[in-house]
Q: What sequence folds into this?
């Protein structure tokens, strides 16, 4: 058996599967007047078979890895290490307001205190809404998600593993 080369002293940490070693991550979801999109971002897209999803261009990515978009609620990252802050930028659409008051608040209540909902009193825009969420975040890492993004189940874990192994201060995904 060949010896492994020594690990440099300044090498970034190797990802771990021990959830006690994983950092707290704050996911900040922003949106305005798109209640249906926000629900998809939080709870995933409707259930389709992978074949159907690929056929209609929904849920399956370009790499054809077979992973459906499951939303923030079903991340593979440990639930107790995941803070979710939903920032609504002063929605005034009746459907969105109803969705926020019922379905979104139910999800928040089920996962409190790690899930939190904030509604801006006046519209301040995407960047300022992200800053509102960031100011409430307690995680070591921040992940920003718009209401029209539907993350795959491994998004948070992949970003954490990537940033821990790369040594970079920030990562983005497309």
A:
């Amino acid at each position: 058996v060949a010896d492994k080369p020594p690990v440099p002293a300044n090498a970034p940490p190797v990802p771990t599967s021990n959830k006690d070693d994983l950092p707290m991550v704050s996911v900040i979801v922003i949106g305005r007047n798109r209640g249906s999109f926000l629900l998809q971002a939080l709870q995933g897209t409707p259930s389709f078979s992978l074949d159907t999803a690929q056929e209609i261009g929904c849920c399956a990515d370009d790499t054809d890895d077979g992973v459906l978009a499951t939303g923030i609620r079903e991340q593979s990252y440990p639930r107790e290490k995941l803070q979710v802050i939903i920032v609504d930028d002063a929605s005034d659409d009746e459907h969105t307001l109803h969705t926020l008051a019922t379905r979104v608040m139910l999800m928040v209540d089920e996962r409190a205190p790690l899930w939190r909902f904030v509604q801006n009193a006046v519209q301040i825009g995407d960047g300022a809404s992200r800053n509102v969420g960031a100011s409430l975040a307690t995680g070591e890492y921040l992940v920003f998600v718009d209401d029209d993004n539907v993350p795959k189940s491994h998004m948070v874990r992949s970003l954490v593993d990537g940033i821990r192994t790369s040594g970079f201060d920030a990562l983005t995904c497309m």
About this structure: The first strand starts at residue 25 and ends at 31. Confidence is low (pLDDT under 50) at residues 4-14, 59-65. Helices lie at 35-43, 50-56, 94-111, 126-136, 155-166.
